[in-house]
Design brief:
The protein is mainly alpha-helical. The protein folds into two domains: 64 residues, no CATH class; 229 residues, Cytochrome p450, CATH 1.10.630. Helices cover 57% and strands 4% of the residues. The chain contains twelve helices and two strands. It has a two-stranded antiparallel sheet with strand order 1-2. The longest helix is centred in the last third of the chain and has 26 residues.
Length: 296
């Protein structure tokens, strides 16, 4: 498509009041179902025809199987260690195989089904106890109704289920007051992580301007990534200590246990085992965030 500005390309077209997909839709009506635009100095292909899309993602799927290395991806995903953000190649294929067969298989999900049942039962029991305690404290009152923030209750329930499956911990609950602060901090960081991961920085379009860090986005990304890495490293160290002298975990294995055993300290295509464990654990935590958003 013509009309690209020097250095900025067609970024000015996406800076209007309309959302990007509407702008691109209008351009498709004008230039056809297949055209290219320049996002800064990088060229992008815009396709809006289902027949061509089908051919692209079947016959010519290798041409679009990789993923761009944006600033957020580099800084916050351990330099593309996330299975969903890594480029197509040996690392992606090997990690996808491990995640699919070791964690997302029907057998593994069935083995961890008792966690979902246990958390739901425990959460309802705590809710019931809260109502009983409130009734005892307000026996003289005409109304013994107990106010419960159901949005928060569902958030905590979902968080407990996922985190127990991923790292074997339960943070929210009446008997887990000490972990509540850490869990709330983690959820806050996760919200900030998701917000920054979807941020398109100037450096993504014009890499030579990265050193200026317009808007301070990269600085914020590094701070959030560092905070997340502290907790992930803590979880990883706890799981190593949990193993006995024989190197086996007693009881149920959570996702991090499975990853440690599957990797057995061996790197994959330049990524060390610790980085891979932390990256895949964080991806699983992001799944919790998305589930929470669906509930809302």
């Amino acid at each position: 498509m013509k009309g690209a500005w020097p250095i900025l390309g067609h970024l000015s077209l996406l800076n209007g009041s309309q959302t990007p997909h509407k702008t691109l839709g209008a351009l498709a009506d004008k230039y056809g179902a297949l055209f290219t635009i320049k996002l800064g100095v990088k060229e992008a292909l815009v396709l809006s025809n289902w027949e061509m899309s089908k051919e692209l993602f079947t016959t010519n799927d290798l041409a679009v199987s990789s993923r761009p290395k944006l600033v957020a991806v580099e800084v916050m995903s351990y330099n593309q260690a996330f299975v969903g953000l890594s480029p197509y190649g040996p690392y992606w294929r090997e990690l996808r195989k491990i995640v699919t067969f070791e964690f997302l298989s029907n057998r593994r999900i069935e083995q961890l089904s008792h966690i979902r049942v246990s958390e739901v039962q425990t959460s309802f029991k705590e809710l019931c106890n809260l109502c009983v305690d409130n009734k005892k404290q307000n026996e003289s009152s005409y109304s013994c109704a107990t106010l419960v923030d159901m949005k928060e209750w569902l958030e905590h329930l979902t968080f407990n289920i996922i985190v127990r499956m991923v790292v074997g911990k339960r943070y929210f609950g009446v008997v887990h007051v000490e972990g509540k602060e850490k869990a709330e901090r983690f959820m806050k960081n996760l919200d900030e992580f998701m917000k920054l991961m979807g941020t398109f920085t100037v450096a993504d379009g014009v890499p030579c301007l990265r050193w200026l860090d317009f808007g301070g986005y990269e600085k914020a990304m590094k701070a959030t990534a560092e905070e997340m890495d502290k907790l992930l490293s803590e979880w990883l160290e706890e799981h190593r200590e949990k193993k006995g002298l024989d190197g086996k975990v007693k009881g149920d294995q959570d996702f991090m246990d499975v990853m440690i055993s599957a990797l057995n300290g061996a790197p994959i295509d330049g990524f060390d085992a610790d980085t891979i464990c932390k990256a895949t654990t964080l991806v699983s935590s992001i799944m919790n965030h998305l589930l929470k958003c669906c509930e809302h």
